[in-house]
Amino acid sequence: MTQADLSVAVALDRSSLAKIENGSRRVSALELARIARAVNERIEWFFRPAPPAVISHRNLQEPGAASPAIDRLIERVARNVEFVIERGRRAWSDTPALTRPGTVAQAEDTAARARALLGADPSGPVSALVDRMAAQGLFAFSFDLGADAADAASLLLREGGVAIVNGARHVGRRRLALAHEFGHFLFADEYTVDWRIAEQDGVEGWESRLDRFARAFLLPEAGLREEFRRLTNEGTDLRTIAVKVGSFYQVDMATLARRMVEIGLISVSDARLVRSVRTGKADIVELNLVVKHELQPPCLPNPYVKSVLSLYRGSEVSAARAIDLLLDTWTEDELPQVPELPEKAIWEFVS
């Protein structure tokens, strides 16, 4: 918005608004309420310190490009998560810290350690990523941000971290994006963002190792080799192998092809075939595939939702505030019934 647009929206002349902005004029509570509504922010946004304003982005379509939609959303989510942690008065898991891998071999090793942290089978698919990661302190949310937004972003908080995944992507790409952000979460020994890491480490070096970590996290080498060997021995053609393995591990074909090449299962020419595979309705029926919708938007971590409902049941937040904390994915009718409070309770209430 321009200053002129905002002055009209809040019924203040432009000179008064300019004085408010430069600190030479006080602002009344009602004026601030109108300004907050006009810029679509809660009033405490003007008073509470912002979460650490350093985030990592995953933007495959346009690497390095800004993504204001995901930046704005992750700030809102971060503020909400910090509020819930603070008001909930419960101890969240300490953020596990893994040493940043300096080689491809170390990326493979840390991927195995990350799977172990989540309690995943060493060689099988890792499912329920959102709730498993929440148990380790990373709260992942998925919203449809459209084709032009980044795939994902993450941000470290004073306790734990948050990640936003663009739900407009297909399930395999959503899972890969979250695995990538989980790597940022695990390896960040201080607040970092991709371009800063690139300056220190060379963008291809660090980002390629982080991508290798994400692929190894979703497609463990031993399990992938065993599955490929079993299907090959059954006489299964490469296209069907790709469809079955991609469905089993819930990955997209580009990720599967890259992984199969890097561990020496297929040639580069075969990888082109795998990348071209599209799983159709006939495949789902004839191959008895189970269709999964992990990170289907909107998606919120269950531990976070339960904490919000606990605050509401305990009459610590209003219905309107609970809906805001749930990022408008619930309606007031869907909230649990709570007993009516006495009038004096208003002084302990967070609206």
UniProtKB/TrEMBL annotation:
<dbReference type="InterPro" id="IPR001387">
    <property type="entry name" value="Cro/C1-type_HTH"/>
</dbReference>
<dbReference type="GO" id="GO:0003677">
    <property type="term" value="F:DNA binding"/>
</dbReference>
<comment type="similarity">
    <text>Belongs to the short-chain fatty acyl-CoA assimilation regulator (ScfR) family.</text>
</comment>
<dbReference type="InterPro" id="IPR010359">
    <property type="entry name" value="IrrE_HExxH"/>
</dbReference>
<dbReference type="Pfam" id="PF01381">
    <property type="entry name" value="HTH_3"/>
</dbReference>
<feature type="domain" description="HTH cro/C1-type">
    <location>
        <begin position="1"/>
        <end position="46"/>
    </location>
</feature>
<dbReference type="InterPro" id="IPR010982">
    <property type="entry name" value="Lambda_DNA-bd_dom_sf"/>
</dbReference>
<dbReference type="InterPro" id="IPR052345">
    <property type="entry name" value="Rad_response_metalloprotease"/>
</dbReference>
<protein>
    <submittedName>
        <fullName>Zn-dependent peptidase ImmA, M78 family</fullName>
    </submittedName>
</protein>
<dbReference type="Pfam" id="PF06114">
    <property type="entry name" value="Peptidase_M78"/>
</dbReference>
